[in-house]
Amino acid sequence: MRLFPRRHGKNKSAGGASGDAADRAAAERSIEEWLASRHGIEAFLEPQTAVTGTTMLLVAHDGEFTRRLVPSAAAAAAFAQKHTLPFYDAPVVGYPQRMRDYSRRQTLLKRQAERDRLN
After folding, report:
1. Among 20, 31, 59, 67, which has the minimal tally of Cβ within 10 Å of its Cβ?
2. What gap in Å lies between CA 60 and CA 38, rounded to an integer?
3. Strands 55-59 vs 42-46: parallel, antiparallel or unpaired
4. Residue 23 CB burial class (10 angstroms; 0-12, 13-18, ≥19)
5. How much is the pTM?
6. How far is 56 from 75, CA to CA, in rounded Å?
7. Contact 60/98 with Cβ under 8 angstroms?
8. Which region among 5-14, 80-89, 106-115 has the lowest average model confidence (pLDDT)?
9. In the predicted model, is pLDDT for residue 1 greater than 50?
10. How confident is the model at residue 18 (pLDDT cuts 50, 70, 90)?
11. 44, 51, 38, 53: which is closest to 95 by C-alpha?
């Protein structure tokens, strides 16, 4: 089972399935680069909802985060184990405060940049 599933409903190019494989390979490379460029990363499993499928949230030491759709909890757990990441069930343990702090800092920086641009 692949970690990054094919997106359903996506228009298929003339390349067909090879385009899907290339998309998955690119997604895997992207997440590998994200992991390599950060430290202190923890993985959080987010259950499927009415709006989204099962997702894995990766949170770095400074609170920066990325979220990826995964085919199953088992696939997310295997990914975390492969990369020796602590793995948590988000509904059970909640989200780390550093993630909320990071989001707040980014919002403040964007507002300041907008103010600077207007002045």
Report:
1. 67
2. 6
3. antiparallel
4. middle
5. 0.79
6. 10
7. no
8. 5-14
9. no
10. low
11. 44
C-alpha distances in Å from residue 32, one per residue of 25, 28, 51, 70: 10, 6, 26, 15
If one counts every other C-beta atom within 10 angstroms of the C-beta of residue 119, the result is 5
Quick one: residue 97, left, alpha or beta (phi over 0 = left, psi -120 to 50 = alpha)?
alpha
Lookup: tokens for 84: 């020796």
Phi then psi dihedrals of residue 117, to 5 deg = -65, -35
Q: Name which of 25, 28, 56, 23 is nearest 41 in CA terms.
A: 56
Euclidean distance between CA atoms 60 and 43, whole angstroms: 9
117, pLDDT greater than 90 = yes
